[in-house]
Specification:
single chain, 368 residues, alpha/beta, FAD/NAD(P)-binding domain, D-Amino Acid Oxidase, Chain A, domain 2, 2 domains, 6-stranded mixed β-sheet, 4-stranded mixed β-sheet, binds flavin-adenine dinucleotide
Length: 368
């Protein structure tokens, strides 16, 4: 039996992939589920961003043929030129925008796709409109429990506290409340909690804290929506989150950036993203939600003042990432039977192909 720890995107898709290869699978998920990165995600699928992501749309459609609707849809990505951070003026440097636009178009061209320039009165680049795909987090969260059950994934509710491997015997997973689960193979897919459960992974796996506003459609006038919102996802051309994550090794103190994005989320909308990284990318301390929300809203006000102060629910959650950009995927060194799937960049595009390989290897009993 394979025990998958974590019922987010990574754990759920891994459980489905393992069942398809005939393995008995138990999925350990927390109940009530805390706000997670998977639920509060824009779910964007940039399949043209790298050759390894090219099959993502086809794989989501194939997952839907086998498991029913999971929220996949083709859409548009509109990249705007605004900047939500106090250190920069509201409209970013035209040269930086032009360079970022050229880089993006080179990626698209390499994938056989094209984007549309959004130009200002003087012919300057204001943004780009690109082909895109997305997986709606609300639809996915509602569909997964039934899809997992139909696929024969056994569900166990609980919170893992520790993993123990008494030499030669199955892995023992201690749960909050005193229960214990045993399995020969454990796949750790617990997002930012992965390093709490297996600390030797900590040097590679870091955590950022993300904050996002959930806007009810009834509080939002269509005329207030930025261009491109009704066709899909809107994000900044000069996004700040990735650059902040790459600075993790040199951060002497916690640092936060705001990206002005907007994505459909079921019948509602997700607005913005504030990302905070602690020194060394540590999980602790969790930032003050009131400070994070205020900073997010004041950043958004630089770009979309009509949206920044609307009534909205603020959600805050940890997101795992690797500074190198290389995901943690596969068997864990010096821990026979323990596998990991965490810190995957662009996971809505990357996980479907990566998990095919991981599940093949796990089913073959490979330790490579
Ligand atoms: C605002 C925002 C926008 C984003 N936009 C995009 C995007 O457009 N495209 C994209 O590809 N990615 C995007 N991401 C990133 C993406 O959503 C995440 O990287 C991804 O969902 C992480 O999935 P995961 O399953 O690894 O982790 P999580 O979603 O964090 O899931 C971890 C799971 O493990 C469980 N867990 C934790 N601890 C324990 C424990 N001790 N015992 C048992 N279970 C446990 C949790 O309950 C949770 O269900 C975005 C993220 C945010 C916050």
């Amino acid at each position: 039996m394979v025990l998958v720890i974590g019922g987010g995107l990574a754990g759920s898709l891994a459980a489905l992939a393992l069942r398809e290869r005939g393995l008995p699978v138990t999925l350990l998920s927390q109940e009530p589920a805390p706000a997670t990165a998977s639920q509060c995600s824009y779910g964007g699928v940039p399949w043209w961003a790298a050759p390894a992501l090219a099959r993502a749309p086809e794989l989501w459609q194939s997952l839907e043929r086998r498991h029913g609707p999971l929220g996949w849809q083709s859409c548009t990505l509109t990249l705007h030129g605004g900047c939500a951070n106090p250190s920069a003026i509201a409209t970013a440097d035209p040269q930086a925008l032009a360079a970022a636009g050229a880089g993006m178009k080179a990626l698209l061209a390499a994938a056989g796709e094209t984007g549309l320039d959004l130009l200002g009165d003087q012919g300057q680049l204001l943004g780009l409109e690109l082909p895109y795909g997305r997986v709606d987090g609300v639809v996915l969260a509602a569909a997964l429990p039934a899809a997992l059950e139909r696929a024969g994934v056994r569900r166990h509710t609980g919170s893992a506290l520790a993993l123990e491997s008494p030499g030669g015997s199955p892995w023992r997973v201690r749960l909050a409340g005193g229960d214990t689960l045993e399995a020969d193979t454990v796949l750790l897919a617990a997002g930012a909690a992965t390093t709490q459960l297996w600390p030797p992974l900590a040097p590679e796996l870091a955590t950022s804290w993300a904050g996002v506003l959930a806007l009810s459609a009834k509080d939002l006038a269509t005329s207030d929506l930025p261009p491109g919102a009704t066709a899909g996802i809107v994000m900044p051309l000069l996004g700040q989150r990735q650059a902040l994550e790459q600075q993790t090794p040199s951060l002497g103190e916690a640092r936060a950036v705001v990206d002005a994005g907007l994505a459909p989320w079921g019948a509602d909308w997700l607005l913005g993203q504030i990302s905070l990284v602690n020194p060394l990318g540590q999980f602790d301390p969790e930032p003050d939600p009131a400070w994070m929300e205020a900073r997010l809203r004041s950043g958004l006000a630089r770009v979309w003042p009509q949206l920044a102060w609307l009534p909205a629910r603020y959600h805050q959650l940890p997101v795992s990432f690797t500074v190198s950009g290389v995901p943690l995927l596969g068997p864990v060194a010096q821990a026979p039977g323990l596998w990991v799937c965490a810190g995957v960049g662009a996971p809505f595009a990357a996980l479907p192909p990566l998990l095919e390989t991981l599940a093949d290897q796990l089913a073959a009993g490979s330790g490579s």
